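Teaching assistant here, posting this on the class forum so everyone can see the example we discussed in section. The complex has two components, and the goal was to see what a joint structure prediction looks like when all of them are supplied at once.
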Amino acid sequence: MTDATLNTMEKPRNQWWDVWDQFKTHKGAVAGLVFLIFITLFVTIGPIIWDVDPGKLNIRNKNLRPIYMALFDSEAKTAWANPMGTDNLGRDIMANIMQGGRISLAVGWTAMILSVFLGTLIGVLAGYFKRLDGLLMRFTDLVLALPLLPLLLVMMLLFRDPLRAAFGPENGIFILIVVGIGITSWMQTARIVRGDVMALKEREFVLAARSIGTPSRRMITRHLLPNVLSPILVSATLGLATAIITESALSFLGLGFPSDFPTWGKILFDSVDRMTQFPERVLWPGLAISLTVLSVNYIGDGLRDALDPRIRGQ
Amino acid sequence: MLIYTIRRLLISIPTLLFIAFVIFMLLELAPGDPMAQMPLTIPPEVKEKMRLALGLGEPWWVRFPLWLKQFFIVEPQYWIDNAFGTNFADGAQRIISFQSRSPVFDVIAERMPQTLWVVGMSYVVGVLIALPIGIISAYRQYSVFDQAGTFVSMIGFSVPPFFSGVLLIVIFSVQLKWLPSIYDTTHVVTDWDSFVFQLRQMIMPVMVLALQTTAQVSRYMRASMLDNLGQDYVRTARAKGMSESVVVLKHVLRNSMIPVITVIALGIPSIFGGAIITEQIFKVNGLGQLLIIALQGSDIPMVMTITFLLAVLIVMMNLIADVLYGILDPRIRYD
């Protein structure tokens, strides 16, 4: 082997670079990622720059229209101090959307992490340990047969007061919603992970690892989990999208966060009564929810292609 | 196949009993109290009597079997009595709503037609739109139509019904004033004009729910068509000189419909769930709205019965989907 051939040989690359290269070719996924980063920055860094208290009442300046309305209608009440207008109590809508987005995204991420954790745990246990398989999968089927939205509504209503008493009004509802969404959405992940683990278990590398005496715990963490990471990631993106939608739906039905505590769904719900006069108040939070979920769905689509080695590199 | 169906039916009995138990215990263990809404001025001993009158005095292992008996034995008896004028029920206690003090099933029967009209219609419309989209998208894969179809179904997945519904109201009721924003359930169709009114008020709720169905079913239809279009029998059919429409619409479509039909059956329960939100937006006084009102009033028998009926629907649709799959696809043998 000469020096020349050594130089032309490519350096070994981390496989995640290949995944990223493939991901970049999916235009929708890249656009989704850009939007998700933008909206995350908007709700995290936004309140630092746009330093207005979302709960501050200002009755004098109530019902301001967004500034762009001045273009169509010179009569419209607008103010540069409130670029997206104010609501019927004079609260700044832009600050509320930022604050609401913080909560909606925080609920979405936490609930998704919980549901993916539960789904992976149950899936791996069922797939790896034959004794648990029948029991856990029967249980999964049972949970899948439950009417989940009504049950979630029941849980919201019944456990609201004790949790608020125990953890305070905001944290109590946060825990309730996150746990509620988490324990009603792990089933698909569990099924996918179980199937993949069962297929992996029969492969030679697992046999090799077992023959040198790898204990079950390390077998799972070292050999099985890294190999089922891609389906877990894909179902995590789907989980994030459904968690955001479920939280907004609960808020929209009036069973989510209390009314002085804005989330996107809650702002939308509060604005529905006045949407004939102020359609923009419904539009902004609704667009925020829809675009966030759309971008997450596109990221999931791109990730699915990027993580599939049969598609990658074509 | 018959043996499989019977076995599945038998398995579904313990499943349903378990689900009923889970719902019952959730309502039982929850600290919410149906008396919480009562005025504080009511003396505690009167409150205790009211609690007994609601049937809450007994422990759960008495009330749960009682509810099961009422649901599975007494209510069907009343139903038979009403239909044939017999007297099986003999004045037995029915499931009574805490709020209205009338039998739960009478209230549900009142609300059912509205929900069935809106939900059923939207499901039919959604499927009818989805099938051609799926077929054309697969036949012209990666064409402009396919890209547009993918985008529309992405939107259907991403835009929640409470936003699409509100958006439609803003555009078509508020700005354009074409359609009424509230669904009038007391409206009776007698002549052409009232029929047009009924049609106009149904368009928006039906389209909101149909968008969700279309998004899902068209994706499945496309994937299933793509699977089949690459098969050998399609090449054989073309080689025999069959026209393209016969190949696609007869050979491929028939085979592709097998998984899609099961998906359609499995989707029916979830559309009832979606109806909870849609009914709230368009103020349809259907089952979903009934559930929300019952929840807010801690009307435990009503919540329990509606939720359990939804669970029955899910279990039955799962069974029907599996059995249909076996009937439609002769390669699948369950026994």
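For the discussion questions: Chain A has 15 helices and no strands. Chain A touches chain B through 43 residues (CB under 8 Å). Think about how each of these relates to the inputs above.
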